[in-house]
Specification:
The chain is mainly β. 3% of the residues lie in helices and 39% in strands.
């Protein structure tokens, strides 16, 4: 009721309102009530309305007080309902529009009752409607609807979405057109009153609680409302400051609180209610305090933690404390449960024992600590401190060369921080570094790093170098002003367990952050000028970025950074990222017989419910399988075993069937069974040899190539792989050492040998490394003191190695001294007698036959075969594999009989008694009869076929081999002949880049430019020239020029374009405007 006095009109007599005039009115709450239903798959509104959760059990709710529009989100599998009563401002005809994604329905009632509502507009799934896009589908618009001013009408909007794959994100909005033609888009909340929102309803009340004085008491209640509720706890009718959640905890109960009544006042925009009063019963404390922990926070300060609040007088009496080996000089309360002791200097790394006597608790009848209570502690360089009161306690564990820190915390950044800080006070300039060995995934923005901080307040100034678990990488961060927003700069990929961070203070005010892969060569992340005090807090900062969960960070090798370079690390490394445009999900690791690793390279979660792994194994992800952005998920054959060995939590399975040890296929399919990812791995080069039975897994080392390209894959950094985390790369000097040359087919007195080569410009110590041709047995240990000089070579003969190489082909392994990693591994096929195989130039990625044997010296050039692969038709313009062929050319001076020769890779074909004359050609066809029909120059004399298999349209390896043999005699004198194939010519062709354009289905073949050139290089191949085979086509057109206005001054040029690449001759062109003559001169 409104009461009014002393208001007069504008008449000359100033007539005054009747005293105490009163008018009653009803205050209408403005807005729209929104309910969200999560975990509902499907794109249609019917998926929402048919869900068991609809309409009674929403997962959340809120009051929208601005517009009839929901916030844009990139959520998956949820629906929502918006309800209100709308009040038309004038009588007339109104029109409504709906915009939603994926689908939506708008209902309007004939009055204010929900039962009268009928659909008036809709959005169907399948045709994308962007936010506030009102005219994509005809059904988005309603007919004209007559409404009466002042009468309320029920209005409801429903929306359902499945998986978000497009932007803009999910949305829902409603607009209307008023009778005067004006639009309100979306409809303002002031036009509506919420429907369906209820006052707070308490489901469970707080209960009476009995506690011991000095301990903690907790009161809680629950409500049925899905929308936010305001809570205010009271004790004996007085509001308790800060007690505004559904749970209230009194950390220190006093005896005086005995019998007090605790209750909660609940409210929302619709109404309020009170809980019942819960009685707090406090019993006397009869338990004495005990020592909980002791640690130092500097070289002369020790912090003592008690089990309960302690009496200030006895706790600050330094005479009650004794530490053997040092003198206690003073004692001061740190908080009600801890005391800081000032001592004479401690020896860092030393072990000390604290003895405490006469300290009492705060009970009304005090209890005294047990006489001579003792606690032993290690004097450490860093002191743990919680900044911003994280809800979960932090823990620090000292190891031999570092610390493990477990911490929670809301954030490191913004205007206030909440994290764990293990610090030391440092005065003046410094330059320190640390290796972050491990940072578990709790959140995409969990952070760990080095921080220099002005003080221990939550909003203090600082500079820091941080790393995160995955895609957010490492960066520099600082807060320039107290209470200001933190700023970040720089980006560097993480590389656990070899993620190095460095923080430098120079000139007192310049702070600079760096990151590195090896702790020697650094990349600058950022720098800032901060006028901080001479003495600051320096140490390890850790935050989980999720207050309800902890994260583990491991710091190792902390120390000064001296004389190290700043620049780009000269190493080919690519951080994890998407490997396909179809999805942000990535296969990142495959271990035959054990596991498949999936990674979400997007910064938002992926719903894998109903997705499937197919190929050699089969596994369907169960409902509600969510993979957070930047996180890994391991699909294991035996999840329990993998968890036991690697300590993983992010494991699912088991899958059925087994991954092949040789070649196999792994696919990821979505719920529609469409293939998102496909890997067809193999045990042959160019696939990593060490991942085939030598203990390593396959890891995605270069995702930009795409998961289907062998060049994208490498071996894991160590044996066993790295399931559930990124595979770090250790930049050991041994990475520069490789098997560079070998000779495997010899006749006495010539000996087999292999050669090692150091590709770096610095020496490498090979002491203790192993060489073998068996992954299960290390056969030859390289002697201690063996140093391979810069770009140096060492050759080892079979008499030194203790084993000969197999002429029929095998694998060779170089293993590091502690037998945790295969440094290099190669696999070779049959070898020609007396012909060495090696890398050319030295250190090149692949192996080829060499023109000469050069053990211990730079390799000779390639040995180019007399018979070469000269032309490849791998993707005919017909898209019919029957039109494929491979052309061979004899560039030598002698005829070659191909009897017994064979294509051993790419296609399968064994030659009969076929002779290629000197300077002659032979075509090997997929379908010889068809090819000879298409090419009149081909006949049975120069064409053979039909080969098995087809050539890959995306490129592949072709290998031509001739048959060879060895003769051996066993210990019983039995002579045995072993036949095998020797590769004499091979090419791995591709598509795109320099591999030609028209040969990829455009009508050309891929031709070798010079038969004497290196077949490995794409620059030595080109598209065949087909222009002479084409005929000119005459095209004539006459018509009116589009978009012309009849002005010769404005229309002064004629432009003709080709729709695709090709050639054309333009002649006899006539252009006239308004009866003019030809404006084009044809010459």
């Amino acid at each position: 009721t409104l009461t009014v006095n002393n208001v007069h009109d504008r008449a000359a007599a100033l007539n005054t309102i009747v005293p105490n005039s009163r008018q009653s009115f009803t205050a209408l709450l403005k807005g729209i009530y929104r309910e969200v239903f999560s975990g509902i798959a499907g794109s249609d509104v019917s998926d929402l309305t048919n869900s068991p959760a609809f309409p009674a059990n929403p997962s959340g709710a809120e009051l929208l007080t601005n517009l009839f529009e929901t916030p844009g989100r990139v959520w998956n599998n949820y629906g929502q309902r918006l309800r209100a009563r709308i009040l038309p401002p004038v009588t007339g005809d109104y029109r409504f529009w709906l915009a939603a994604d994926d689908s939506g329905v708008l209902l309007l009632g004939a009055n204010d009752a929900p039962e009268s509502a009928r659909p008036i507009a809709a959005v169907a799934a399948g045709v994308l409607v962007a936010a506030r896009q009102w005219d994509v589908q005809p059904s988005q618009q309603s007919a004209l609807i007559p409404l009466v001013a002042g009468q309320q009408y029920y209005l409801e909007a429903l929306m359902q979405t499945s998986i978000s794959v497009e932007f803009p994100p999910d949305h829902l909005a409603v607009r209307w057109q008023l009778p005067d033609g004006s639009l309100e888009e979306p409809i303002p909340a002031a036009r509506l009153t919420p429907y369906g929102m209820n006052p707070p309803s308490i489901v469970s009340q707080p209960t009476n609680t009995s506690v011991v004085e000095g301990s903690t008491a907790t009161f809680q209640l629950t409500v049925s409302n899905p929308d936010p509720i305001r809570f205010q706890w009271q004790q004996n009718g007085t509001n308790i400051a800060g007690a505004t959640n559904s749970i209230y905890t009194d950390l220190v109960i006093e005896r005086a609180e005995n019998g007090s009544v605790v209750q909660c006042v609940l409210s929302n925009p619709v109404g309020s209610t009170n809980s019942v009063g819960a009685i707090l019963n406090v019993t006397p404390d009869v338990t004495p305090p005990v020592l909980v922990d002791v640690s130092n926070n500097s070289s002369n300060r020790v912090v003592v933690f008690f089990s309960e609040p302690v009496d200030a007088a006895t706790a600050t009496n330094f005479a009650n404390y004794r530490i053997a080996g040092v003198t206690v000089l003073a004692a001061a309360l740190r908080d009600n449960r801890s005391v800081t002791l000032t001592t004479t200097p401690l020896v860092m790394g030393g072990t000390y024992t604290l003895t405490v006597n006469a300290v009492r608790d705060r009970a009304v009848t005090p209890n005294v600590i047990a006489p001579n209570s003792q606690r032993t502690f290690l004097a450490a360089d860093f002191f743990p401190q919680a900044i911003g009161s994280p809800p979960l306690p932090g823990f620090i564990t000292w190891t031999g060369n570092g610390v493990d820190i477990t911490a929670s915390g809301g954030d490191l950044g913004g205007t206030n921080d909440q994290f764990h800080f293990s610090y030391q006070q440092r005065r003046g300039d410094f330059d320190v570094k640390v290796r972050v060995q491990r940072l578990d995934f709790t959140d995409l923005w969990s952070a760990a790093g080095l921080m220099a901080r002005e003080d221990l307040g939550t909003n203090g100034r600082y500079a820091a170098a941080f790393s995160t678990p995955s895609i957010a990488g490492s960066f520099f961060q600082y807060r320039a002003n107290t209470g200001g927003a933190a700023q970040t700069s720089g980006a560097f990929p993480v590389n656990y367990p070899y993620t190095w961070l460095r923080l430098q203070r120079l000139g007192g005010t310049r702070f600079t952050g760096y990151a590195s892969f090896d702790g020697q060569t650094w990349t600058q992340l950022g720098s800032v000028i901060l006028a901080l005090p001479p003495t600051i807090y320096l140490g390890f900062a850790v935050s989980s970025h999720n207050p309800s969960q902890t994260v583990l960070a491991q710091f190792r090798d902390f120390g000064d950074s001296t004389g190290e370079s700043v620049g780009v690390l000269p190493v080919a490394m690519e951080p994890l990222g998407p490997s396909s445009r179809r999805t942000g999900l990535v296969f990142t690791e495959i271990m035959s017989l054990e596991f498949i690793e999936l990674y979400n390279s997007n910064p938002f979660f992926a719903d894998l419910s109903g997705y499937r792994i197919s190929g050699d194994v089969d596994y369907t992800f169960p409902p509600r399988t969510l993979l957070p952005g930047g996180a890994f998920l391991v699909i294991a054959r035996n999840p329990a075993d993998l968890q036991a060995v690697h300590g993983l939590s992010n494991v699912t399975g088991p899958y059925t069937n087994n991954l092949s040890n040789g070649k196999g296929t792994v696919r990821l399919r979505n719920r529609a069974d469409a293939i998102l990812l496909e890997v067809n791995y193999d045990s042959k080069p160019p696939w990593p040899v060490a991942a085939d039975g030598a203990g390593h897994s396959l890891v995605l080392a270069r995702p930009s190539y795409g998961e289907g390209d062998p060049k994208a894959w490498g071996q894991s950094d160590t044996f066993g792989g790295s399931p559930g985390r990124a595979d770090g790369v250790e930049f050991s000097p041994l990475r520069n050492v490789m098997i560079n040359e070998f000779l495997a087919h010899t006749d006495p007195p010539e000996l087999d040998y292999l050669e090692l080569y150091n590709h770096a410009f610095s020496p490498v110590d090979l002491s203790g490394c192993w060489l073998s041709d068996d992954p299960a047995t290390n056969k030859f240990r390289i002697p201690d003191g063996t140093i391979l000089g810069p770009t140096g070579f060492v050759a080892l003969a079979e008499t030194t190695l203790g084993f000969a190489l197999s002429a029929a082909g095998e694998a060779l392994y170089l293993v590091n001294s502690n037998r945790t990693r295969v440094v290099d591994a190669i696999r070779f096929e049959g070898q020609e007698n007396g012909v060495a195989t090696g890398r050319y130039p030295d250190g090149a990625p692949g192996f080829q036959r060499l023109a000469a044997k050069t053990p211990g010296a730079p390799n000779a050039p390639l040995r180019i075969s007399s018979l070469v692969i000269n032309e490849i038709m791998y993707h005919p313009i017909t898209d019919d594999a029957n039109d494929e062929f491979v052309e061979l050319y004899n560039r030598g001076t002698n005829a070659i009989n191909l009897n017994g020769w064979r294509f051993t890779d790419g296609i399968d074909f064994t030659f009969g008694n076929t002779v290629i004359p000197a300077n002659g050609y032979l075509v090997v066809a997929k379908n010889a009869a068809r090819l000879m029909t298409n090419y009149p120059n081909l006949n049975a004399g120069n064409t053979v076929g039909n080969y098995e298999g087809t050539l890959n349209n995306s490129g592949e390896r072709l290998a031509l081999s001739r048959r060879d043999f060895t003769v051996t005699t066993n210990l019983s004198g039995v002579v045995k002949t072993n036949f095998f194939y020797v590769e004499v010519e091979e090419v791995t062709f591709g598509k795109g880049g320099r591999w030609g354009n028209w040969s990829e289905g455009g009508g050309s073949s891929l031709e070798r430019i010079d038969p004497h050139s290196d077949p490995r290089q794409s620059s030595n191949w080109a598209d065949s020239d087909e222009t002479a085979k084409s005929a000119w086509t005459s095209v004539s057109f006459s018509g009116t020029l589009d978009n012309a206005d009849g002005s010769s001054s404005r229309n002064n040029s004629l432009q003709i374009y080709l729709l695709d690449a090709g050639e054309c001759l333009v002649d006899n062109v006539s252009v006239s405007i308004a009866g003019s003559g030809n404006l084009v001169t044809n010459s």
